[in-house]
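I had to read the description of the data format several times before I understood it. Each protein is reduced to its one-letter sequence and a matching series of backbone shape codes. The format is easy to grasp once an entry is in front of the reader. For illustration, here is how one protein appears when written out as sequence plus structure tokens:
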Amino acid sequence: MPFVSRPSTPAGLAARHARRVIIALMASTMLGAAAHAQDSPAPADLNLSGAASSSVPAGLAQLPVERQVAWLEHAAQNGEFAPLSDAQLIAVFQELAPDTVPRYVRNGSRLYWECEFQMFSQQRVRGVWQIQPAHMLVRYRRQPRQVYVKWLADGRNAGQETIYDELKDAHQLYAHQGGLLQFVAMWTSIDSARALAQSNHTVRELGIDYVTEQFLSELEKYRAAGVEKPTKIEVLHDHGTRIVAFTWETPSGQPEFYAKRERLGLDLRHPFFRTVEAWDNQGEIFEKFSFLDVTPKHFDDATFDPKNPEYAF
């Protein structure tokens, strides 16, 4: 029977183009590593020479997880995802093994054990959804756990400040409200009704690393329930920045899992989830967070001192 070529579908063309993009990205990784071999080792000890006789892997999916992670780290750090279309990005991340993104964010979590970031937060507290997001500046140190938070002018509770320092008191935080009451600061338990009046999370749970650890903990439960991969991968925008979002749908929802459905948006330049959204068993969203301008820092003691002249305690 004579061979008759079939017209390619848009999905097929996107998949084939994505595979070519993967090969091109991996080739650029190797060429970049070779060009700087005398100055530094290949990124994350990425050794692709055994992947194929041509020294260029035939496809990302065939690489072991550790090499996929190294490739992902290099591609993100060098901005190589920026030129890709949404369809190409989705196809690339669909090629990855189930353990690659989890290991990538786990490896990167340590970078944010001491950092500054801005955060937009909306939650359903005591059954009521916060229509206006809170916009916060956060300075965070994991060890010892120390946190400074300021609610910024364009968000809910503007002018409020909180400081937590476990070296001074592991069970209490120091805070003041905004507006006319900003000069009335007081100590309160981190899990008191006052401290949790605006959030379902304590001040100790404000770090980028907490989001990563929460995801990894839930991932173990997903897999125990037979959910090996996200149910959906898509490209979204958060505050003008593209992210790749992974939706996880759980079979039974709460209370066995943190949420019935959760969507986490991966930053395309750095190893952390830029966005987190969670829905309950009734399909209602109960929290939505965005992390912006995340910058690793080394803070001095004044950062977590209420007497810092930059603060309004």
Summary: The two ends are 84 Å apart (CA to CA).
